[in-house]
Amino acid sequence: MSLKDKAILVTLARGLPPVSKTDKRITALIQQQHGTNKLRASKKLLPDTALDAVRTVHGEAYKWHRAHTVAWGDDSSRLLASSHFIEYSDKMRGFRQAQDALADDFTAHWPSYVDEARTQLKGAFNASDYPSQHNIRREFVFTTDFAPVPDGNDFRIKLRKEEMDELRAATDSLVERAEANCRADVARRLAEPLAAIVNRLTEKDAIFRDSLIGNLRDICDLMPALNITGDATLEAARLRIRAELYHTDVELCRENSTVRDQTARKAQAILDTMTGYFEPMQAAA
Question: Which of 105, 155, 193, 205 has most Cβ atoms within 10 angstroms of its Cβ?
Fold first, then answer.
């Protein structure tokens, strides 16, 4: 099966009303007073905490989105395993519903925010900086857009054979690079907690938290959804982690230097199987 049969591209977009703005009139006055155009007068349009709850939801959604998808190209699109489309959609729907409820509440209080700004900004207040309630609601954005993974055989436009062959080759090359990028991203995410285990457990008198192993368990559990290319080396590394490190007793590692050393060696041995995927992590060995 090709990559396009196993994954889709997904883009998560989020947006909020602006909380600050450059005041052109006051900026002009300041620049004239100080004789420089390097100064700007920025004013806060909203109370500091007005959008905190929505930012939290957006942040949690982005974190979940990043954790359950894999790097694709240079834009914001990421690879999502087709088998996890329903899980992903359900989770994003929950985040969107949470955002919508908070956005509706924010919109209901919009007149009071404008009144507060009028009091606080005094002469710097400009009513044109504040849209109507109807329009301010449109400033809240939370969308997930899906697209198929491109394939060199998908083109239906009429081109000369030479042009079509060149276009197919360019597209196939893009997908090939993206697959390599995907494998490197998954390897990096698997290697980071392994390297942390090696570094901490080989450091004399090091203090480490339960999350040292917990982080490894988390990425290990995500691997079936992230190893979209079906890379055999990464799957073998996951299986070794499940068998050798997944159930590591952190408290025993703290108390027993022999167990600590054995655990570090196991983590390093698994790291060594992935050295061909990336350069930075080799320094952690």
Answer: 193
For 25, 124, 167, the CA distances from 33, given in Å and listed in that order, are: 13, 17, 58
For residues 168 and 120, membership in a common domain is answered with no
CA 23 → CA 37, 120, 183, distances in Å?
Answer: 14, 15, 47
**Cα angle 208-209-212, degrees, rounded to a multiple of 5:** 85
The answer on 94 and 29 residing in a single domain is yes
Q: How far apart are CA 136 and CA 105, in angstroms?
A: 12
What's the structural domain count of the chain? 2
* Top-confidence range, 170-179, 224-233, 237-246: 237-246
Quick check: helix, strand or coil at residue 203? coil
Domain boundary among 126, 148, 170: 148
List the structure tokens of 83. 């088998």
* Per-residue model confidence as pLDDT tens digits over 78-93: 989 988 999 999 999 9
- What does pTM read for this prediction? 0.77
Q: Which of 114, 148, 182 is the last residue of a domain?
A: 148
Helix axes 161-201, 232-244, angle to 10 degrees: 20
d(CA 233, CA 184) in angstroms, rounded, equals 12
Domain that holds residue 25: 3-148
Query: Is residue 41 situated within a structural domain?
Result: yes
**Does the residue 155 lie in any domain?**
no
Residue with the two structure tokens 């396009």: 4
